[in-house]
Amino acid sequence: MKKTLAAGGARKIVRDLGDLQRKAIAGMETFTEIAEVDVGTAPKDLVYSEDKVKLYHYRQEGEVTCRVPVLMVYALVNRQYMLDLQPDRSIVRNLLQRGMDLYIIDWGYPTKADMYLALDDYLNGYLYDCVEYIRKSTGIDKLSLMGICQGGTFCAMYAAMYPEQVQNLITIVAPFDFTPNDGLLFAWSKYMNADDLVDVYRVVPGDLLNVAYSMLMPFALNIKKYGQMLSIVDDREKLLNFLRMEKWIFDSPGQAGECLREFIRDFFQGNKLVKGEVKIGDRAVDLKKITMPLLNIYASADHIVPPSTTKPLNDLVGSTDKSLFEFPGGHVGIFVSSKSQKVLAPFIAQWLHARQDGRPGLQSGAVPQLAAGHPELQVVPKPQAARRAVKARLPGGKKIH
Amino acid sequence: MEKATEFFDTWVQMQEEVVKHWLAAAQELPQTLLEMEVFKSSLPDSPASELFNANMSCLKDLSADVVHMQQLGTEVMKDTVARASGTSNVFMKLYELWHPLFQAVQDRVMDVEAYGEVLEPQEYSEIMDQVFGLGPATATEVIHQTTKITEALCCATQEYGRPWAQAMQKNGVFMPELAEGRPDTFLHIFHNLFSAFDNTVGKVFHIPAVGKDREKIGLILRGLDDLVVYNAKYTEFQQRIYVTGIKALEKVLHAVAQRIRSGHEIRTLNELFELWLDINEQEYFHAFRTKEFSMLQGELLGFALKVRRQFHKLMELNLYEYPIALRSEMDDTYKTLYELKKKVRNLERKISDRNVKEAAA
């Protein structure tokens, strides 16, 4: 006789519920044993600070093999330690192991005193000063910028305004074209009154933004994940992994009002970046002025920054050496998944190594070298050779253009 | 005509003359009409004849009334008008009291300045002097003012009634929804009635110039209304969420039934849980992605922010007397700090650039 949920499966359900209870009790023990949820543990030194912004330099315990320093720029929402969430899931550690000289910006937690901070202050102020610090302290004129999410948008704008300071540009899951509505944030933002929001809050609380983020996938983010937690709650290490991610998700700094107002109005609503109408302070942002090598990476299942908002950058820049890399995963998985550790960081390190001497970038002849260390990468010749771009394919049909 | 009695005599005579002339003219009119072809040729019971007869009958009654009035004597009329004039100061007081209100209702704006303009104390003082002097100009002015009061009353009544009528019209639209028992309908109805109240009787709250307390009352009332509006929108938002949930549940049941029919029955609680999650996620994603939902969410946020804004204003008023830095004051301080920091940064850069140039030179 078949045991179904509808008939005859009652005993099974009771047993499932019993198991669940036992796990929950065991989980309580595990929870009480965890004193601290540690994140961002790769050793680093504070080398520069201005107001609430801090610039850290990661300690390179091995040999620096890529002489061009890399400045990592994260979004203003959430914290930069996503790139170093835990030792075995850390893009930072991965890049350090591959000989990179890494710096990272911590934007800090804005308070009401920072309500007037605008994009001009973040880009022409803090980011400029951090870049200047690295240039002066290393004696190297140009550095590589690696921007993540909104930080990628910032880096692209910075590279357009100060091309003489940027050797290479890497953007990861960063939005550029804000017209597509396949991402809910993009659809919702178009009907949001940024002026009211900022006038009332001054510094828009991170918790408010978290409510919006949790609505992007309400059942997966608010129910499913906690259901899944019950299945690992008796395993200390797995539970710690879960809690690190939870800590990151809910560690959301408030947003400086003026900057957020500009970002909603000029980007989400006005889509001025692709139109070439953005002006930061007294500097116009013309993406055509991005002529350095560009690596633009997006996640195929990104529900926060959909690929349609990321991909157009490659058509807007003036670079001849430009690559588009599709990672099979989501907005967060691209940094913390096990596949990411095997594929993304090694690929970025190789891409940067290939461009450390300032030569005009990835030539078709360089592709086999690049793929040689990564059996998962399959090189696919680019049909339009004139654009000097390449395509590589990841397992599962994912590709690099 | 310096004395009041002379004025009234003349005035009554003039009235009599006017009535006599009018009656004479009215009597000439039928004669003129009778000479017209249309009346000559008409039959006794034709419409034209009926009109003519009705007019004559009316004139006859009017003439009788005038004759009767004349028989009352000028003294009675004088007495009546004198009484009216004698009580004019009371009347003027009433006028003074109510006119600003009526004017405010008409204009829908009332503040201290407007109040002063409406009153025109100098003009009223002159009027009062003339009223006590009982000169002809005074009497004319009394009549003039009475006419103005009557006009103001009519306008005020219209203006007073209009918002309520509009509210009732608007609420009429909600009646079918009310019958369905939709909870947000009550909130809409309340809001419409409050708007009518605010545009009519509510104006009274704005009239007394009692400083901050008046503003507080205004803000509290406005804040309450904003809260009601927000709640109405929130109910709409919740309704959208519930409806989506019900649709998802129907789909879950359908999917379960489908599996049973196809022989792939659900055997564990987890399996059912996963199915429920997936269907709900899809359903809500599609609902959230619509333009309607985005607009609704934007509106909801807008109303929520409005409530917060009113609350902040109220807090500022309440804390004004205390030695606490207010929000607006801190905003100014932050602004100053921000601008100073920016200046310092620019100056530092200039110095740095100059040092580099000097070192290079």
Core attributes:
heterodimer, A: 401 residues, alpha/beta, 8-stranded mixed β-sheet, 3-stranded antiparallel β-sheet, 16 helices, 42% helix, disordered C terminus, B: 361 residues, mainly alpha, 13 helices, 86% helix, 0% strand, flat
Query: Mean pLDDT of chain B, rounded to whole units?
Result: 76
- Which protein chains make the most extensive interface, counting residues with beta carbons within 8 Å of the other chain's beta carbons? A-B, 41 and 39 residues
Q: Alpha-carbon distance between the termini of chain A? A: 55 Å
Count of DSSP H/I helices of chain B: 13
Q: How would you state the average pLDDT of chain A, rounded?
A: 86
Write out the strand line-up for the largest beta sheet of chain A, numbering strands in chain order: 1-2-6-3-7-8-13-14
For the record, give the distance between the C-alpha atoms at the N and C termini of chain B, rounded to a whole number.
Answer: 104 Å
User: What is the radius of gyration of chain B?
Assistant: 38 Å
Query: Which structural class best describes the helix and strand composition of chain A?
Result: alpha/beta
The helix/strand series of chain B, from N terminus to C terminus, equals: HHHHHHHHHHHHH
What best-fitting shape of chain A do the alpha-carbon axes yield? globular
Biggest pleated-sheet summary of chain A: 8 strands, mixed
Largest sheet of chain B: none
The gyration radius over C-alpha positions of chain A equals 22 Å
Beta strand count of chain B? 0
SSE blueprint and pairings:
The complex is a heterodimer of chains A (about 400) and B (about 350).
Chain A: H1 10-33, E1 44-50, E2 53-58, E3 70-73, E4 84-86, E5 89-90, H2 91-97, E6 102-106, H3 119-138, E7 143-148, H4 150-161, E8 166-172, H5 184-189, H6 194-201, E9 203-204, H7 206-214, H8 218-232, H9 236-250, E10 255-256, H10 257-269, H11 272-275, E11 279-280, E12 283-284, E13 294-299, H12 307-310, H13 313-316, E14 322-327, H14 333-336, H15 338-353, H16 367-372, E15 378-380, E16 391-394, E17 398-400
Parallel strand pairs in A: 3-6, 3-7, 7-8, 8-13, 13-14
Antiparallel strand pairs in A: 1-2, 2-6, 4-5, 9-10, 11-12, 15-16, 16-17
Chain B: H1 4-34, H2 37-40, H3 47-72, H4 74-86, H5 88-107, H6 112-119, H7 121-133, H8 136-180, H9 183-199, H10 212-262, H11 269-289, H12 291-319, H13 327-360
Helix pairs in contact in B: 1-3, 1-4, 5-6, 5-8, 7-8, 8-9, 9-10, 10-11, 10-12
